[in-house]
Each structure stands twice: as C-alpha cells, then as structure tokens.
Write a sequence for this structure.
C-alpha cells in the first residue's frame, strides 16, 4: 500500500512541468496610514512575486527599491490588503482600510474561506487571543474562547487531558471528543503540537461546516494551523517562561486540633497537614526558539520547544522537547507548491499517583510522623506510618515508595503538492504519516502498603504504539459566471488507515527492589504463573469521497453545499458506507437591501448531517477469546469462548443539525459579533445493551438506537475601542446557552432492544456505597440526571440520628429504592467568556474572565467523609459539624449535590515592551510579561474544583454521566508566570 | 496546443486516481489478536478448548454476587452485615439477607447471567459439535446436554419460571417463559436421556466433568425437591438416584471431614462433581477475601488485604455442639486454635501464632467491644448500619493457604458424597418417619463429626444436621425451602416474608430486553 502511495505521489508530481522570469530598478517611498491618517508602524510592503520587502518605521514611512513594472502589496494586521502598481510613481502614500472582518480568512474543512462568505457556524481564534501563561496543552489555549465549546480539566494535573464538548452531548457510545485536524491532517494529536507554534485555531461548530468530515464530524472539528514563514521577513524569536504552580483549593478537612476537639477519632498525638506533605510549589520553565523567513518562492519556519513542567503533586510533571519544521517551496512559475511539515515530540512524564490526593484527605491529621526509619513497628513499611484499615494508605508513602512514568515519542510528517493547471483549476495531493509510542512503567515497592507489599514488589512495563497514514487527492475548480457570480468546486478522495498495537507485562515477587521495572524477568510471578503478559494489535480504515460547491453571488448571497461518502472497516457488513450531506446559505443584508447603520449584516442558515464512528475496532464481529482454563484429563488447557455477539448492522451515530446565524459589524467594524441558534438531533446513538441470553451467546451487544436532542444559543461580540495611534482596547465577550441535552429514546421495539424506560449507572463505590447508582438515563428526559435520595433540607438528621430522607413517592414509607428522584444535572447551562485586551504603547494588559453556570456536581468527598461517625476510621470534612447528631453511615443523597456555577479570573497578563531605541543592537523586540492563571474563583461549590465533570472515567456511562466529582482527582492549582519574548 | 497539454495532464491525473481506487475501497475488517468464527474451531485442540467454555462458565458459581451469594446470604447460615462504611453497597447485601431483594439487585442479575451464560455456552457447543460430526467430539454432545440440564436445575431452583431454550442456530430472539413445572419436566427428561450418553468412568479423566454419577446426583437433587419444583413429591426416585451413587462403590466418606476442604482437596473420595478452582488457572473461589478481616492478612501472609465481610449467624454457629469436629475450636488468648473448624472466632494471631494482632487503628478500637487487641466474635450486634468490624464467626471451612492468593486453590464441591447419604436418609424418612436405615445413614455422618448419634429423626434435626454438614456448600436455601423454613421463617435480621420469596425475581435487565418474560409473583 505504502509503495503505491509513493509511486502515486511521484507520478502526480512528474505530471507537472515548465518556468521563466525578468528585470530593471527604481526606488519608491511613502507613508502608510489608517483611514484616519494615523501612521501604521510595522506595516508590510512587499514587491509582489518576489521576496523583496520592508516594513514601515515609527512614522509609518518606508522606502523600497523595486523592479520596473512592479506591483506593491501593502498589508497590516487588521486592515484590508491593498495592491498598487508602481508604474512611474516614486512616492506612494496609502491609507489602508480597516477591514478585519471582511477579508479575514477562516480555515474550513479542506480549504479556507473569506469570513464574509462563510455561511456556517465557525469560530476562529488567532494566536494573539489564546489563553496565556503556563499553557501546556492546546485545548487550554481555547478554554472559554469559543462559545459553545466547553473545555474542562477538573484538576491541574500537568499530564491530565482536557475534556472537550461541543454544544451539549450528541453521542451515547461513540467518541465524544472533536476531530482534530492539524494543517489539513485528520486525526492529529493535540499533545504533539507546541502551543507557541500555532497561528490560529478554527472550530467548526455546526453540521453544515463539519459534514465534509462525515463520520468524524459530529462532535465538532478543531482545525489547527501552525505558523509559517513570511516572505522577506527573516525572524528569530525566543520566548522563555518561568512558572510557579501553587495549590489552589483542597477539601476542607479537620486540622489536628479540630480532629481531637471533634471527638470520636483516635488522637495519635501528632499534627500533620497531609496536603502540605503531598504537594509542592511546581516550578516550570519553557523555552521556545523559532526561526522563520523566506523568499517569494520559499518560506520556512523551524522551531524548537522545550518544557520542563512540575505539577503541584510531588513527582508529577514532564520534560518535553518538540521540534517542528514547516517548509513551502513554489516552482514552475509559482504553479506548483510543495509543502512539507515535520513535527517530532519526545516527552518523559512522571505521572505520580492521583489516589494519593484521596488518602491525603482522609488520613488522620494527628498521625505522629510521616516516616520514621528507626521505628521498628513500621519497618515493614520502610518506616512510613500506616494503619491496617480498609482503603487507607499513607499518601506520602504512595508517592515516595513507588514510581509511575510514561515516555512518549510522536513523529508527524506530511508532504503536500498543489498544482494550478490553470488559474481556475488545481489539484492537490497529500500524504501524511503519524506515529507515536508510549512506554508506561510502574513500580510498587515491596514495602509499599498499597499494592507492593501484597505482591512482594510489583512492576509493569507496557508499550502502546499507534500509527496512521493518510492519503488525499483533491481537485479544485473556480469560475466566474456572468458578472460577479463566483462558483468554486472541490472534489476529493481520502484514505486513512490506523494501526494500534502494543505489549506489556506485569509481574510481582521480586527478591530486591533494586530492579524497579527494569528487570521484569526477575519477578517470581512469571515462574509461579501469577505474572501477566499481553500483546495486541488492531487496525481500522476509513475511505471517503467528498465534494463541495460554493457560490458567491455578487457578495450578496452565498451558498455552500457539500457531500461526503464515508466507509469504515469498523461498520458492520450491512452498513459499510454512510452519506453525509450539508447545505448552507447566507445573505448580506447590507449589500442586498442597502441597510444603513450596519457595515455588515449577514444572515445565514445551515443544515448538515455528520456522523460519529464506532469507538472500537471489531465490535461488529463475533469474536472468540480466552475464557479461562479447562481442567481436561488432569491438566489445565486454555478454553476459548465467545466474547461478543455478531453485529452486522453496527454503524455510525448520525447527527442532523440546523443552525441559524447572524454576523454583523457596526461602527466601522469596531463592533462585530455573531449570534447562532442551533438545534440538533442524534439518531442511531450507540449504546451497550443487555441482551437476553439465550438466545445470545454474550450478554451485551452494541446497538444503534439512541436518539438525542440538543439546542442552544451562542453569542460572540468583539468591540474594538480605538484609543489612538499606538493604543488599543479590545473587549470580547462570548456567551452560550446550552439547553440540557435530551434523551428521546434508548430503545428500538422492532429489534426488541429496550432499557425499559430507564437505566441507572455510575456507581459511587466503596467503602460501603457500591450499588449506589448516581445517574439515571431516562427516556424522554434530560440527559445528565443525577439520581438519588432526597434529603430533608430543613432537618437532614432525625432525632434518632438517622438520615432524614424524603418520602418521595408519598407512600408513607421512606425506603432506599422507590424514594429516589432527580436531584441535579451535570450539564452546564451557560458558558461565558469576557476578555479585555488593552494596549498602551509599551504596556499591554490582558484580562480574561471565564464562567460556567448551571451545572451541578456530586461532591463525593462529602458523600463519603461527611458523616461524623466516619471519624472513627478517617479524617472528616469540616462540614461534618453541620450534622453533629448523625449516627447513620454515609449515604449519598441530594445533600451532596451542589450547584457548581462559577466565575473566575482565569487569566491576567501584564506585558511591557522595551522601546526599540533602547534595545541592544540586533534585537528588534523585547517584551517582558507576567501572567497569573486561575487567580480568583467565585463559586458556591465546596469541592476542589467547580469545573464541569464531562467524562466519568470510573463508570461505563462515561460522557453520559457528567457531574460526578470523584475522589481520585488531582487538585487544582494557581499559576504565576514570568516570561520574556525576544525578537531578532 | 495549450489545451492539448492540459487534457494530457488531466488524463494522467485520472490514471493516478484510478490506479489505487479499487485497492482502497476494501473495508473488510482485519483481525490480528483475536479469533472470529472464521478462523476458530478447526483443530482437535481447538475443539477441546471450545468444550472448555462450557465448564469455565462454571467458575462463576462462587462469584461474590452470583449463585453463591443467592444461596448462602439469603439463608440463615450466612450474612454480610454493613460494618460502618463497609459493605453498605446501596443496601443490597442487607436486602439479600432480609429477602427484600429487587429485580435490579446485583445478586439477582449476576446469578441469572451466570446460569444462562452456561446455558448459552452449552447450546452453542451442542450445535457446533452436532454440525461437526467428528468421532472425537460426538461424546461431548451428551455431556454438554447433561451439563445444560444442571444449569437448568439451578434455574429451576432459583428463578423457577424461565424460558427453556435448547436451540442455537434458530433460537427465538425473545423466548417466552416456561412454567416451573415445564422446566422441571425438561430437566428430568434431559437428565434421563443423557444418562446412557455420558461416560461411566469415574477417574481423573472425568474430574471436574460430567459422568454418569454426576447425572445421577443431579437427578437425586431434582427428585428430592420435586414437590417444591413440580408440586408432586418423588421420594422413592430420589432414594433410587442416591442409591445409584452410594452403591456404585466409587465414593466413600473421608475419615477427616476437612480432607474435603483442604487447599489440596482435589480428588477427595467424596467429590462427585467439583469445580477445580486454582489460584493461577481457574480463579473464582474468593471466600478468603470475602470473610476474613483486613488484619487477618497477617494471619496467613495473604497476597491481598481481605474485605472483612461475610460471616455466619450466631444462631447458626451455636447450632453445632462444642464437641462437633466440624465446628472446630475458638482461638484463645494463648494462641490460635490447633484444630481447624468451619469457623474462625476468638483472638487473632499473626502467621507465627505468637504475635497477637493489634487493631491499633482508629476504627475498631472505638466501636468494637474488644477494642485494640483484635478478636473475632460470634455475636453480631446488628445487621446494619454499624455492625462491629469484629462481628460474626468467619467461614474457615475451606482451608486458608499460608501465602495464599485472593483466588483460592481449594476445589469447590458441587455434589459431595455425604450430601447424598443425608439425602437418601431424608427420602427414606419422608416415606417412613421411623425408617431405621434413614437414622443409620444420618448417624454415619454424625459419628464422623464426633457427636452422639441421634435416637430418632425429625424435620428439625434432619434440617439442622444438613445445615451443619453442608455449611457453605450452596445447599442451605434449597433445604430451607424444602422444609418450609425459608421465606416464612425468621432469624437474625430477617422477618417473615411471603412464600413467593422462595423464588428470585427475573432481573430487570432481562425483562427490559425480552418482553416475553413473565415476572415472578411478589415482584
């Protein structure tokens, strides 16, 4: 296959031939200003078709020697580009028109589009608007910036992933994460891009925009465009940052004195703050060095990025080095353009042990010592203080005695050729290869009370590899019909295959701890049969045909229609191919009706169908796997049996979506904004059902039956308050109101698939609260329903010390089964973002507030450790004091469900740019900045972090069980960063 | 000229496109590390390994919320109290003991899945081996049918009214419920039909598998409970089936009761059918985890910290005379008891037997009456919410291995010889309450246990003797029902319940998925 691609590439490249050029000189000078005559400093002037160029000085003036017959291209961020034929002129003064919205380009699926032509819901975020500070993850750049996109990571685990949800939840069993496209390559890894290398991120929000991505578009599409070199501007840039991470919030537990005073616990005589013992001030530094430039035919950008990041939990953090090179070469009279991108990332991460946070919460604060190596009673545990209790471990011992690491390597390369056969017709070919491998290593010391002691020391090593290759062929045709009607077409074929493989082993019972995970063969478990070894491999592929037509009628009316046909090997035999159509249209009422008062008023409407692929390979097949060992003639032989039911009808989830939007600009484009109203319906949602057994061989099967509904409104405003020549103040505001997703149906009578109206899941857990479902999925009701007993708020505890729950069904008896009700919802209703960007000459200030409102969280710390009686086993929360007379055991109820709405000062950056005159020679720019992240949170939530919990990894419901704040979670931090940005 | 060049380029482009279209529209799913129906079931070794799936299904017998819990915790011989924060689990353990279970409770669902998982596995294999028509595998068919009948025997006992499904290829997607008497008739005819088709060998080659004696044992169980299952007693048929076992000469009572329950109990002369549990190859027997206290990890150097859950009721513990060898002796302040018994009580010691375990933690010392020096008590203060951590005699019938794993090596008898001696005695006594043979059979068991023989038999002393002998072998619930002492009786933590509680509800997950299922009365 690979050979074929290479051949095809070569063939397609060699189809193309021919070239030429000419000469003579003159000098042109002048001043570049804005419409009001204010000088524009640093505006670009480029002789068209060459690398010859310059920039304006502090007075806005320039001077450039050009060839005869040259055309100058003037450009400046935020203004409309303008071309001037030099002719005989020696002075060209020019006033650029402000036109940010008009001619700004957004990235769309398989192409770009001028903002004014866009008829779908697309949000574009440029690098200057990204979140600043110690940002190690691309998702975080966007947090709060895109209305309708909820990005959340509850704690501040430097190795933790963000959950991203677009417009509610549109999937029941496929992937819920958006498709990531990096420089045109589908399925990119956000962790493999250095945030500093990104020029812009565009988010396709509605179906009409995302349908061109077919069976991967339903959760939205995030298009990342990396920075490129600019012809004529050789730039060397360095950005360095030093950051400090400090603990933000922790559960409010009793101190040693309070613990003793509370009574009921055992006073062991000491005084230890376990959070202090577990956490540190995380010190991080990052360095980014980039080199870019080019000529009219070649541009390049190379950057090296190094990050050494420490988390607030001791032993967590990572070192990451990333190298990226983007090169573009034009040839054949500029008709051929070859682009190559290479990105290599290596990362060594210390993962630490998130469970330590939970034990730090409950460990007795009067413990006499953390560790005493000379205390014989504790020599069994290397001197760490331990007590033999269920689920109770010294948190410091966990992180100090044991090791958990991950080493990752990612290499993403792609090459793309575009050839313009004529001005109207062009063809492009892309080949991309992405590979990554992650080696996970874990070691539990023989003297570690948690796990290690039981196993006599235990080590794990596993290697997971993933690779994919993508081949794409696209053809474009643009034509101008009568007068001002432009029509453009795109047609393409895409092939992508994925391979996942890996192996690993876990073994225990080592003679010595010296080997850690570096000599697994020394584990006796491999001799006594208790060790485990595995390897696996699975593949899948996607084949697609797609096409799109765009019509621009005199800049008044715009129509876009697209169609994609997607086939996936993961689909069952009966449903190998899906079709995903979309159409959208818009009209600029200013142009159409000559509306006054507006610079632009575009109304648009889009309809599209997108899909979400089956999340795993082989789900459609009847598979057999090892089912244990069978005692046959005196010895055990392996036994094989079915591990799944055949499922030939399995297919994608389908989302149909209607979006209505208005884009407007008033006051000379100073105030711009857009409003979107959407409604979507998901059909064929995948859900794992219990099936009758018999006749089925296996008791669960995935069926495409779920129906969901989402709707909402999004508003984005941007106000550019002019403050004069070199000053500016921009206020941006975004708000999204998401109506709680609805579960319409989770059954299909025709196929006899049903949940009987509802199904409960997401178990709370031990101790003592297994079999306590927290979430109810109910047909014809809201998704995200938190479900449980209802406390009597006025009097939570009866006089006899038992919980005072309400008799919900009014049958006169309070019981645990029938007296449960909906007691909250984990989905947020509102997301808000408010940014202020102030530029006062040398000084710049950026303030960003972010809010998420209307979601509830189950504070599981309270559900477990609030009952005063728990003090006999664990440290308890200070809120236990509210219910001193409770004798009952902890029991989850509405008492532990809290409104977690919050508003935070998420990002505050102050920058100072040194005067150009004061800089050492050779430097063109020096900017110093200070950033604070997560500075202030206003919330009524009493847990660690009020961020929405979008994915419950502890239960099979996952995204269907939002709103559960589990105990094994990394705490959140506050970050302060000092940075410097130097340009040469 | 230009036009020509253009179209030439175009056509070459078309060539590159067409060149790899056909290769790249193939969406067949490739399989690497798993097997599918296409590449499995080809060789003799694979046939045997396929047969294994019917037996490995049996390992679920002892699952924490499987048949084991359904038969034991619902009865008067075992209980899982809520010990402070532990074992509350949404109340389902308490409900199981109180007989207030719901159709959504885990034990109900797991037990159903375990039993019907076995039925499905056997149905599939019967179909496959019938298709195959291979002399090696033909004998498997009779064996599988008998095994299926045993799964149905348990379904008959626990859920009663269940669908009888015997076909695989053209199975009804939503099979209707059969009445309990129909299920009874099915099990009887299947076992009778299987008898000549299974091997008569009783040796290592049939250890853990179905042979003729196993079929007789299943028939004996079926007939002894026939009145409960079908409304018509079959005492003489029950006695005859027991006789087939007793008179076969294949089995005899071990001199030491505990030879049946040691770590190395494979091949006990009392085992008619046992599950060959193994720490490495055949995990599933976790009694050690379920019953022992966290601190007892040090008593046996266990490879995991036990869960401090299951124990016996004090009344049941006291139903043994102190001299009963099966009861054993409590530990003392001097050290662990030198004699093993069904129960572990008294002061607890580390593996050397010399160091007293100390619960110097915060928990027990505050609540448990014995405080810091760790002691297990037969007394259970309450079922919930704050049972002492030390409450309840622990189940030590199956020997705890020093250095043992969470999965025990002890095999689990399904049909054990002494059970059939007592069953024959009961059948004879039912037909003739004055039967001397019956009395002699029961006294055979009592004598081995080191207790005085009975002078006469009664419903009470027969039921109690069965309880003492068969403790922790999944017989108690069935026995109590047969003696009319299950739902309608009361004991510690459990009130009188309507008689319909003698059957479990059909799990909600199943009635949701199959509208043709009929829920049992009571639910």
């Amino acid at each position: 296959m690979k050979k074929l691609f290479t051949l095809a590439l070569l063939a397609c490249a060699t189809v193309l031939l021919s070239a030429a050029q000419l000469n003579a000189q003159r000098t042109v000078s002048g001043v570049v200003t804005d419409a009001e005559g204010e000088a524009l400093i640093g505006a670009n002037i480029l002789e068209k078709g060459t690398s010859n160029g310059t920039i304006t000085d502090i007075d806005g003036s320039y001077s450039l020697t050009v060839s005869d017959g040259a055309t100058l291209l003037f450009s400046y961020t935020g203004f409309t580009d303008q071309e001037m034929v030099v002719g005989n002129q020696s002075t060209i003064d020019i006033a650029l028109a402000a036109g940010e919205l008009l001619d700004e380009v957004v990235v769309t699926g398989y192409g770009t589009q001028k903002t004014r032509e866009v008829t779908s819901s697309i949000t574009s975020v440029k690098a200057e608007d990204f979140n600043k500070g110690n940002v190690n993850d691309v998702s975080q750049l966007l947090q709060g910036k895109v209305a309708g996109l909820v990005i959340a990571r509850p704690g501040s685990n430097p190795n933790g992933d963000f959950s991203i949800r677009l417009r509610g939840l549109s999937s029941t069993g496929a992937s819920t994460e958006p498709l990531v496209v990096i420089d045109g390559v589908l399925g990119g890894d956000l962790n493999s891009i250095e945030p500093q290398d990104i020029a812009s991120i565009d988010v396709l929000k509605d179906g009409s925009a995302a349908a061109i991505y077919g069976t991967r578009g339903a959760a939205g599409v995030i298009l990342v465009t990396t920075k490129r070199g600019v012809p004529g501007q050789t730039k060397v840039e360095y950005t360095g940052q030093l950051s400090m991470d400090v603990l933000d919030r922790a559960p409010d537990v009793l101190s040693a004195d309070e613990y003793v005073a509370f009574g009921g616990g055992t006073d062991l005589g000491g005084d230890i703050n376990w959070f202090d013992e577990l956490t540190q001030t995380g010190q991080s530094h990052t360095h980014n060095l980039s080199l870019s430039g080019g000529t009219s035919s070649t541009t390049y950008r190379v950057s090296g990025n190094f990050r050494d990041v420490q988390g607030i939990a001791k032993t967590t953090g990572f070192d990451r080095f990333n190298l990226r090179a983007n090169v573009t070469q034009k040839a054949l009279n500029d008709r051929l353009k070859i682009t190559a991108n290479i990105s290599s990332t290596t990362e060594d991460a210390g993962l630490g042990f998130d469970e330590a946070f939970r034990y730090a919460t409950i460990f007795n604060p009067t413990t006499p010592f953390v560790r005493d190596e000379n205390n014989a009673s504790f020599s069994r545990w290397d001197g760490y203080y331990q007590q033999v209790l269920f689920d109770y471990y010294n948190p410091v011992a966990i992180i100090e005695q044991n090791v958990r690491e991950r080493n990752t390597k990612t290499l993403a390369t792609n090459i793309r050729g575009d050839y313009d056969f004529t001005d109207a017709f062009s063809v492009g070919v892309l080949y991309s290869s992405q590979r990554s491998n992650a080696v996970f290593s874990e070691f539990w010391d023989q003297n570690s009370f948690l796990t290690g002691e039981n196993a006599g020391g235990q080590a794990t090593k596993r290697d997971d590899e993933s690779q994919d290759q993508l081949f794409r062929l696209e053809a474009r045709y643009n034509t101008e019909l009568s007068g001002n009607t432009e029509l453009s077409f795109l047609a393409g074929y895409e092939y992508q295959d994925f391979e996942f493989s890996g192996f690993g082993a876990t073994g225990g019972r080592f003679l010595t701890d010296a080997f850690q995970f570096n000599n697994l063969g020394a584990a006796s478990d491999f001799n006594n049969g208790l060790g485990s070894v595995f390897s696996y491999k699975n593949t899948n592929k996607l084949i697609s045909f797609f096409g799109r037509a765009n019509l621009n009628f005199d800049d008044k009316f715009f129509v876009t229609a697209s169609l994609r046909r997607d086939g996936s090997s993961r689909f069952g035999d009966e449903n190998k191919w899906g079709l995903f159509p979309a159409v959208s249209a818009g009209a600029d009422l200013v142009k159409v009706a000559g509306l006054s008062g507006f610079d632009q008023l575009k109304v648009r409407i889009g309809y599209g169908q997108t899909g979400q692929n089956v999340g795993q390979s082989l789900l459609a097949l009847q598979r057999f796997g090892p089912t244990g060992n069978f005692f046959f003639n005196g010895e055990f032989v392996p036994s094989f049996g079915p591990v799944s039911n055949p499922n030939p009808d399995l297919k994608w989830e389908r989302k149909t979506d209607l979006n209505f939007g208005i884009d407007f600009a008033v006051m000379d484009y100073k105030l711009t904004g857009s409003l979107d109203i959407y409604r979507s319906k998901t059909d064929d949602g995948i859900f794992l059902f219990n099936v009758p057994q018999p006749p089925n061989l296996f008791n669960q099967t995935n069926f495409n039956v779920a129906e969901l509904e989402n709707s909402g409104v999004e508003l984005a405003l941007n106000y550019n308050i002019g403050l004069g020549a070199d000053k500016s103040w921009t206020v941006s505001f975004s708000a999204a109101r998401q109506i709680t997703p609805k579960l319409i149906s989770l059954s299909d009578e025709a196929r006899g698939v049903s949940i009987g109206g509802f199904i409960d899941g997401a178990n709370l857990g031990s101790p003592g609260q297994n079999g306590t479902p927290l979430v109810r999925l109910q047909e014809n009701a809201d998704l995200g329903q938190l479900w449980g007993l209802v406390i009597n708020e006025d009097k939570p505890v009866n006089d006899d010390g038992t919980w005072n729950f309400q008799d919900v069904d009014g049958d006169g008896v309070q019981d645990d089964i029938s007296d449960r009700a909906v007691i909250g919802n984990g989905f947020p209703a509102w997301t808000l973002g408010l940014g202020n960007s102030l530029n006062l000459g040398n000084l710049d200030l950026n303030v960003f507030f972010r809010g998420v409102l209307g979601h509830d969280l189950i504070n599981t710390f309270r559900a477990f450790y609030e009952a005063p009686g728990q003090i006999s086993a664990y440290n308890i929360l200070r809120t236990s004091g509210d219910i001193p007379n409770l004798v009952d055991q902890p029991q989850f109820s509405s008492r532990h469900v809290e409104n977690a709405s919050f508003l935070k000062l998420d990002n505050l950056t102050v920058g100072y740019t040194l005067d150009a005159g004061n800089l050492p020679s050779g430097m063109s720019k020096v900017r110093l900045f200070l950033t604070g992240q997560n500075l202030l949170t206003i919330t009524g939530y009493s847990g660690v972090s009020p961020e929405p919990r979008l994915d419950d990894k502890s239960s099979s419901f996952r995204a269907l069980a939002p709103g559960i704040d589990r105990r094994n979670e990394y705490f959140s931090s506050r970050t302060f960063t000092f940075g410097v940005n130097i340009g040469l | 000229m230009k036009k020509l060049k253009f179209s030439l380029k175009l056509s070459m482009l078309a060539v590159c496109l067409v060149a790899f279209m056909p290769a790249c529209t193939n969406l067949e799913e490739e399989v690497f590390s798993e097997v599918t129906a296409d590449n499995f079931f080809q060789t003799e070794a694979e046939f045997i390994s396929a047969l294994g799936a019917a037996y490995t299904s049996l390992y679920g017998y002892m699952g924490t919320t499987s048949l084991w819990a359904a038969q034991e915790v619902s009865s008067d011989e075992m209980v899982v109290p809520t010990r402070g924060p532990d074992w509350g689990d949404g109340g389902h353990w308490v409900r199981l003991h109180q007989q207030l279970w719901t159709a959504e409770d885990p034990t109900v669902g797991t037990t159903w899945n375990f039993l019907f998982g076995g039925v499905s596995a056997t149905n599939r294999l019967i179909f496959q081996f019938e298709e195959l028509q291979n002399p090696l595998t033909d004998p498997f068919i009779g064996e599988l049918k008998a095994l299926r009948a045993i799964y149905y025997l348990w379904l008959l006992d626990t859920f009663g009214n269940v669908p009888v499904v015997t076909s695989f290829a053209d199975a009804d997607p939503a099979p209707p419920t059969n009445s309990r008497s129909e299920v009874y008739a099915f099990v009887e005819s299947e076992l009778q039909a299987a008898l000549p088709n299974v091997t008569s060998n009783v040796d290592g080659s049939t250890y853990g598998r179905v042979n003729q004696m196993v079929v007789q044992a299943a028939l004996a169980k079926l007939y002894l409970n026939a009145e409960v299952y079908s409304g018509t007693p079959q005492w003489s048929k029950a006695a005859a089936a027991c006789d087939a076992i007793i008179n076969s000469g294949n089995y005899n009572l071990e001199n030491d009761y505990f030879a049946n329950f040691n770590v190395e109990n494979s091949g006990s002369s009392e085992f008619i059918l046992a599950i060959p549990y193994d720490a490495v190859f055949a995990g599933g027997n976790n009694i050690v985890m379920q019953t022992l206290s966290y601190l007892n990890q040090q008593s046996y150097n266990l490879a995991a910290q036990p869960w401090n859950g299951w124990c016996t009721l004090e009344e049941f513990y006291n139903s043994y005379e102190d001299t009963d060898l099966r009861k054993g002796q409590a530990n003392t302040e001097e050290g662990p008891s030198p004699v093993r018994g069904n129960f572990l009580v008294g002061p607890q010691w580390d593996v050397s037997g010399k160091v007293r375990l100390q619960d110097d933690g915060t928990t027990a010392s505050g609540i448990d009456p014995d405080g810091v020096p760790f002691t297990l008590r037969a007394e259970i203060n309450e079922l919930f919410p704050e049972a002492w951590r030390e409450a309840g005699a622990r189940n030590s019938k199956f020997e705890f291995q020093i250095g043992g794993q969470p999965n025990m090596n002890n095999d689990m008898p399904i049909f054990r010889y002494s059970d059939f001696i007592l069953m024959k005695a009961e059948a004879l006594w039912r037909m003739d309450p004055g039967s001397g043979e019956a009395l002699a059979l029961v006294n055979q068991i009592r004598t081995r246990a080191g207790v005085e023989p009975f002078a006469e038999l009664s419903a009470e002393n027969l039921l109690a003797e069965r309880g003492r002998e068969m403790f922790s072998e999944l017989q108690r619930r069935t026995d109590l029902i047969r003696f009319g002492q299950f739902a309608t009786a009361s004991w510690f933590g459990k009130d009188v319940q309507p008689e319909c509680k003698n059957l479990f509800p059909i799990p909600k997950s199943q009635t949701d998925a199959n509208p043709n299922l009929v829920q049992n009365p009571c639910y």
